[in-house]
């Protein structure tokens, strides 16, 4: 088998690409985004109100509110702009042995994560207009505890096909 350009040194000897794709880049606002967006709007609104009041007193003291206003806007508009941008810079590959997720984001850089396809991997299909196939999970730490983060090929138009491919690979594993 000839290894595709860019994959040299990554694939195992008998590894073959079964599917490649990328997530849908449309704006998707989920239930977790709504409270963050609401808080950001209130935070930015309060900062704007404070800056107007501070500017009325004269001087440049109002500029201290710019940081808070910017943070509020980022929280309020992040899901609208960051989500599609992140998805535009994400690529998925499924082989007969691994699921790969590649990203190329500013500040975070280029990353390639590999998840071995095993018989007991937690496989889940989230049916929606644009399906998501989850195949791994990791625990993330927060200040007040930890939570389970699902990993997979998110918002892919051919999610049913990919889910079927993963099930076939699992069935054929020893």
UniProtKB/TrEMBL annotation:
Single GO molecular function: transferase activity
Organism superkingdom: Bacteria
Annotated TM spans: 37-55, 61-82
Transmembrane helix in keyword set: yes
Keywords, in A-Z order: Membrane, Transferase, Transmembrane, Transmembrane helix
Protein name, as recorded: Aspartate carbamoyltransferase catalytic subunit
Organism: Profundibacter amoris
């Amino acid at each position: 088998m000839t290894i595709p350009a860019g994959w040299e040194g990554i694939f195992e000897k008998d590894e073959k690409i079964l599917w490649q794709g990328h997530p849908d880049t449309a704006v998707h606002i989920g239930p977790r985004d709504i409270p963050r967006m609401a808080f950001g709007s209130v935070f930015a609104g309060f900062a704007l109100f404070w800056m107007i009041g501070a500017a009325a007193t004269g001087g440049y003291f109002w500029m201290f509110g710019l940081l808070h206003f910017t943070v509020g806007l980022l929280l309020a508009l992040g899901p609208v702009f960051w989500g599609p941008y992140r998805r535009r810079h994400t690529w998925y590959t499924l082989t007969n042995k691994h699921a790969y997720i590649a990203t190329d984001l500013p500040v975070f850089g280029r990353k390639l994560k590999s998840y071995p396809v095993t018989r007991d991997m937690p496989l889940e299909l989230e049916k929606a207009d644009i399906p998501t196939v989850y195949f791994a999970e990791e625990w993330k730490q927060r200040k007040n505890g930890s939570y389970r983060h699902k990993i997979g090929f998110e918002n892919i138009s051919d999610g049913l096909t990919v889910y079927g491919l993963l099930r076939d690979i699992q069935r054929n594993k020893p």
